Amino acid sequence: MNSRRLAAADGGAAGQDVSQLSLAVYSSEPTLRTPAGLLERMGLDLLDARELGWRLFVRDLSAQYRQSLLGVSWALLPPILIGLVFIVLHSRNVLRLAPTAIPYPVFALVGSLYWQIFVDALNAPLKAVSGARSILTRVQFPREALILSALYSVLFAALLKGLVLVSVLVFFGMPLQPGLLLAPLAIAALIVLGLGIGLALTPLGLLYTDVSSALVVVVQIWFFATPVVYPAPESWPLSLVATLNPVSPLLTAARDLTTLGGISSPLSLIVASGLACAALLAAWIFYRVALPITIERLSA
Amino acid sequence: MSEPLIRANEVGKKFCRDLKRSLRYGLTDLVSEAIGARRQSSALRPGEFWALQDICFELRRGESLGLIGPNGAGKTTLLRMLNGLIRPDTGRIEVRGRMQALIALGAGFNPILTGRENVYINGAVLGIPKREIDRRFDEIVDFSGVEEFIDAPVQSYSSGMAVRLGFAVAIHMDPDILLVDEVLAVGDLSFRARCSRKLGELKERGVPWILVSHDMGTIRNQTNRVMVLEHGRCSYIGPPDEAISLYRVAASRPAHSSAADSGRNGDDPIETREARITDVRLLNGCGEECAAFRTGDPLRVEVRFETDAAIESAAFGIAFYSGDGDCLTGANTAIDGLEIEKLAGTGSAWFEIGHIPFLPGIYRVRIDLHDRHMGVIDSRVDAAILRVEGGRFVAGLFSTEHRWRVE
Known about the structure:
Radius of gyration of chain B: 27 Å
Oligomer: heterodimer
Low-confidence stretches of chain B: 255-271
Largest sheet of chain A: none
Number of domains of chain A: 1
CATH topology of the domain at 270-389 in chain B: Coagulation Factor XIII, Chain A, domain 1
CATH superfamily of the domain at 270-389 in chain B: abc- transporter (atp binding component) like domain
Helix content of chain A: 55-70%
Order of helices and strands of chain A: HEHHHHHHHHHHH
Order of helices and strands of chain B: EHEEHEEHHHEHEHEEHEEEEEEEEE
Structural class of chain B: alpha/beta
Largest interface: A-B, 60 and 69 residues
CATH architecture of the domain at 270-389 in chain B: Distorted Sandwich
Number of strands of chain A: 1
CATH class of the domain at 270-389 in chain B: Mainly Beta
């Protein structure tokens, strides 16, 4: 796959010796049987995919906003509205929550903005790949481009949310801590985790629509199983929410860094980040290996 | 001879007609692929069939291979495997160099964006760097012939215009190998002429291509070897004329009758016929049965018959059909003024032509036996297959008996 992109674009290789041309072999041999070659091709294709990934992102973005009145605000409205709902519920004492170290409105708004970043990352790969169905079944291009375009769209939305976030902090008179500069790292881990899970589900999601339907439900439940709008419970068994759920330490750390400038448990953040990176790599390999099989079923 | 750019060896691909089952097989394949297990891919699972089987060929520089066959014969599947979009279930494909498939023209086109934006996106999808498109942008737009609309959204284009733009981008990528799937047929006449010129340029540079088309004229002009696919198998690979004729014969054969069917017409059971055509042979000038003739050769068609009772004022008819089923020429004893007073017992009739006017190809010979009212006693539609191979040079549709004189 990479080969065609490595050759110079003009002149072709008509005069060149045939044996010097790059060789591609297609057979039914499982790709995982040659892991070294697989990883090398993945790396090359990722490099190859940069321009296409960017173009696809720009295409989707410009097409999206050309056909929309509210434009970029769609990236901001859902988390802000959810945050507001909980702020209202909390202020009317409908919710009984443990006290938070920072004013609850800030806690809820920052939490739901970060949660939305995770959800964006979770949904992005399947969305990008489903949207590319028609080119996937007909054109050979580095499939990594779709992951990159998904990543870019998540980053773009995250950037917008970051602006809202800073306004929230300023509005509520929160001190801007130096730890705030470390928050992007935790957010990056959150995105990596979301992409990893989303990517792992993508080949299956292309085959069966059940995956995207289930994802909606799971995200809703997951929202309540994560300390987004409430502080992490400390007593067993509810504390499982914080220990078993990989999103919890990442989201909590990101919020703590943003608002308090420090984190309580660096270890769990490191473990969760490592886990997220491992998940993304594994998901990438799976995506890479599984996609040709899925594509065949899409068009068969 | 140079190394082949494409080498396909016993390539096979199976598909499943039932969507639910197909998806389930996809799931199991996914799991076995994910754990790196070897799949039992050479055996059919319930509901599966071979969309392609035992395809072997090589493609070298300067060659051009045509793929013809009925819809669903596996032509596009083969192209998609060559392009690496789907993997073969059996066999092995080796491809050297950069392959460009003119299959999905305008891939990645977004209807809302302008033609200009889409050229860049399409180029990126096809692997052409931006600076390369910058450099050749005018050439691409010029080739596509949509200059006036280049800044209008693609959704305002006619379907032909969109495809032309896509083709223009794709063809400007200077591939080592080209796969073309039924795209030359779109676009208006001037665009087709431009495409042919462009293909000619590529041919001069020795870029080989594989062309799928249902337009036999295109196949004949643009390829030097043709593979006929039928039900996923390669039924013939060889010179275009031969392949096209074979395909036409196969295509015009009624679906229910097999190749071995003699093509007997009429609903009457044979027993009630008073006479039968028992054998039809094609003989050459020396009276020997011959498998292949050359344009301009003499031809003698021998028709053997048997009768149960004497038939008075019978007549024989003969007709030659092209593979497409067009009647090219025919003759009849009654119309030619030959009176056959009586047919009795067994006997033979001969039809002779001094020189075969047909160009290389496969022709079907039909023989009829009529009674005095021109009613059909017996009729054999595919009584014989006349195979004409290259003879003397002729141009056009048929050869004529001729002489030159220069004074």
